[in-house]
Design a protein that fits this description.
The structure holds two protein chains of two kinds.
Chain A (H helix, E strand, L loop, with lengths): L6 H7 L7 E3 L12 H10 L2 H4 L3 H16 L3 E8 L4 E8 L2 H5 L3 E3 L3 H9 L3 E3 L10 H5 L4 E9 L2 E10 L7 H41 L12 E6 L7 E8 L5 E8 L4 H19 L4 H15 L5 E9 L4 E7 L5 E3 L6 E2 L19 E4 L5 E5 L11 H12 L5 H12 L9 E7 L7 E6 L5 H14 L4 H21 L7 E9 L2 E8 L8 H14 L2 E6 L4 E8 L5
Antiparallel strand pairs in A: 1-5, 2-3, 2-7, 3-4, 5-6, 6-7, 8-17, 9-10, 10-11, 11-12, 12-15, 13-14, 13-16, 16-17, 18-19, 19-20, 20-22, 21-22
Chain B lengths: L2 E7 L3 E10 L4 H11 L6 E12 L1 H17 L2 E5 L5 H8 L8 E2 L2 H10 L1
Parallel strand pairs in B: 2-3, 3-4, 4-5
Antiparallel strand pairs in B: 1-2
Helix pairs in contact in B: 1-2
The chains are: A alpha+beta, B alpha/beta.
């Protein structure tokens, strides 16, 4: 044991050493005191290659080198957890259990704790007669120990210690070498920890963001929708999309972009998305949805800017209404012709001016048209005008038809594989052409009745039916389908089919099921038959070997 | 959501406004929801069908069924079914409009509740 009195070190460190502990080199001996052979070793510790490593491999490599240089049996690094002011075993050689068990030592107590508290090297000649908290050191029969603090830019990062299974007097020279190792490696540890924290925030943010976006899009028969969220290559963003199946078969699609990055942007994004959802589900039209969200953002005093767009599509009429708040204009990819940007009213982002007003645009989608909302990450490139980005978007979309195909193509053509500089969201809605003959095949379940009505109404409108005829025919066909669903029974999952065609101003609709027609029982079914008979010009119920067929026909009124 | 149901509670009357579609997929749950809101201190239920878009025989069955259950409990059922509404057309086509009392407006329905 070095011949020095523990008291000699008090003044420098302000630390009382524990029993059996001796503070070394409290005055801070110069590295030059190291022997030449050890100097070479020290440079091995300062190897720039170490700085390239992630935290775990860096610590592992460092410990291997320290064990080698100081010819010790064990080495370990404990990192400081600032939240709990504890040291947590993070890497070890010969003392792996320390890490496995996640040993935590309070700063100020035990061997490592006192090194951390006093920021001084401490030497223990005999573990059995010293204050040591960590039972593993005794279990592994570590006899003598030497430890130094890891400090970078005045910040305590942890403690590095080595041990010998035989009694060994660590010299000042050893302490200097170990301290140097710690000094050389501390900035790398600091950098790695910082990076780790950032990555943790990033992945937490990505996970948060993913959990905030729809897991799957609602399925609306006859209205294909598709969407993408593409995180940026290195930061969490605040972009979002949404698709809503609303009352009366309407479909709402939303897009938005909270300025800035990080978990906070993602959290605000979640709030805005929920708010838009709430107003949209309540049946508000696009401009009203944006106005309400705008008031909400102002009320909440959010410090970030957000842009958004909302569109409401009525599949029955193919009418689409949309409004935007400081957001890039949506794009239309027509069934025929070149893709183009749609007009938008110049309007402020959400929450930026008092009483912002948002105006709606409205137009009718033709069969085969695709409508797209996107965020600026899809078009913007540094040092380039927006017009170039818009032109690139339209060029990439040329000749692409369908919601999914459009999202896939734009992702492939415009988004770098490793992610863009900004995150990107896009959502597309496609208007399927109305077929000349309607042919639907559905599972015999009550929930499918609404799908039939939507598909039929759309088809009837395209066939030139008046509002009254659309309503009355839909009701009659609804009764026929309800009958099919109610009476369908079959060993295999039952289905029913609806076919419709128009000829010389008369529409004919056939509903077939795999069950058997039953005499109307009870007033309910009886009323259904009465409705069909009163609503249509002709009702024909027939039995076949496969099941029941109800054929309904009606001459359409002229002049909508 | 196919249909929406919103309630207003007056002293002895519950006003229920039904909107959207009623068919065999949801008629039962709409009926159950109407039942639940009627506490024993209520004398009448006013069911407003003005905003209903689609109303088929399952909906008509719901009305007859509800009316019978309420009669047993001593609660009057009043229906608001304006001229030109979808529900009106359905009741007409089913041939049952003559057999039930309906009012043109909510005010008229509340008036007929007050008369009792």
């Amino acid at each position: 044991m070095p011949a020095r009195s523990p008291e000699a070190s008090f003044g420098a460190s302000g630390l009382t050493p524990g029993r059996g502990q001796v503070i070394l080199g409290a005055g801070g001996a110069a590295p030059a005191a190291a022997a030449p052979a050890q100097m070479a070793d020290i440079y091995r510790l300062g190897d720039p290659a170490l700085a390239e490593l992630a935290l775990e491999p860096l610590l592992d490599e460092l410990l291997v080198r320290v064990v080698d240089i100081l010819r010790v049996d064990t080495s370990a690094i404990l990192l400081h957890d600032a939240d709990t002011d504890e040291l947590v075993a993070r890497a070890a050689k010969g003392l792996e259990e320390e890490v496995e068990r996640g040993v935590r030592i309070p700063v100020g107590r035990g061997f490592a704790g006192r090194i951390a508290a006093g920021r001084v090297p401490i030497h223990i000649l005999d573990v059995d007669h010293a204050e040591v908290l960590n039972p593993i050191l005794r279990e592994k029969h570590v006899r003598s120990m030497l430890g130094v603090p890891l400090i970078a830019e005045g910040e305590l990062l942890g403690v590095l210690h080595v041990g010998s299974l035989t009694t060994r007097t660590f010299t000042d020279q050893d302490a200097i070498v170990l301290q140097l190792a710690a000094t050389r490696v501390a900035p790398a540890v600091q950098r790695a920890r910082l990076l780790e924290a950032l990555q943790r925030e990033h992945s937490a943010g990505i996970a948060l963001q993913r959990s905030l976006l729809p897991e799957r899009l609602p399925i609306v028969v006859g209205v294909p929708v598709a969407a993408r969220y593409l995180p940026s290559r290195d930061e969490v963003g605040g972009d979002w999309y949404d698709v809503l199946a609303l009352n009366r078969g309407m479909v709402g699609i939303a897009i938005g972009d909270v300025a800035g990055h990080g978990v906070r942007a993602a959290a605000l994004m979640a709030e805005l998305r929920s708010a838009m959802r709430a107003y949209a589900v309540d049946g508000q039209p696009p401009a009203a949805v944006l106005e309400r969200v705008d008031r909400l953002v102002r009320e909440a005093g959010a410090l970030r800017m957000a842009t958004a767009g909302y569109a409401l599509y009525d599949p029955e009429t193919s009418c689409l209404r949309y409004a935007t708040a400081g957001h890039p204009p949506p794009m239309l990819v027509p069934a025929e012709g070149e893709p183009r940007l749609l007009p938008v009213e110049i309007a402020p982002p959400l929450g930026t001016v008092p009483y912002a007003a948002y105006a709606e645009q409205q137009f009718r989608l033709e069969g085969g048209d695709t409508f797209l909302f996107y965020t600026d990450g899809l078009i913007e490139r540094r040092g380039e005008s927006l017009d170039v980005g818009f032109a690139r978007l339209c060029a990439a979309a040329g000749g692409v038809h369908g919601a999914e195909a459009l999202c896939r193509t734009l992702t492939r053509e415009l988004v770098p594989r490793e992610g863009g500089a900004d995150d990107i969201a896009m959502v597309a809605l496609h208007c399927e052409p109305v077929p000349e003959r309607l042919a639907l095949m559905l599972p015999a379940r009550p929930e499918t009745l609404a799908d039939v009505r939507r598909g039929l109404r759309r088809w009837l409108r395209a066939a030139g039916a008046t509002d009254d005829d659309v309503a009355v025919i839909t009701l009659a066909v609804g009764e026929a389908c309800a009958n099919a669903v109610e009476h369908a029974y079959s060993p295999t999952p039952a289905v029913y089919a609806v076919e419709a065609f128009e000829e010389a101003g008369t529409v004919t609709i056939a509903v077939r099921d795999s069950g058997r027609w039953r005499r109307p029982r009870g007033e309910n079914r009886g009323r259904g038959l009465t409705i069909m008979e009163n609503a249509m010009d002709d009702v024909d119920v027939s039995q076949t070997a496969e099941g029941t067929e109800i054929v309904l026909s009606k001459r359409l009124a002229t002049g909508a | 959501m196919l249909a929406d149901l919103r309630f207003e509670h007056a002293e002895s009357v519950v006003v229920a406004r039904l909107a959207g579609d009623v068919d065999m997929s949801n008629a039962r749950e709409v009926g159950a929801a109407l039942d639940r809101t009627l506490t024993n201190d209520k004398l009448a239920l006013v069911l407003d069908l003005s905003e209903v878009d689609y109303f088929d025989s399952a909906g008509i069955h719901l009305i007859f069924d509800l009316r019978e259950r309420l009669r047993v409990r001593g609660v009057k059922l009043c229906l608001v079914v304006p001229e030109g509404s979808s529900a009106r057309a359905s009741l007409q086509l089913a041939g049952v409009l003559r057999t039930i009392d309906v009012d043109e407006t909510l005010d008229a329905a509340l008036g007929s509740v007050a008369q009792n």
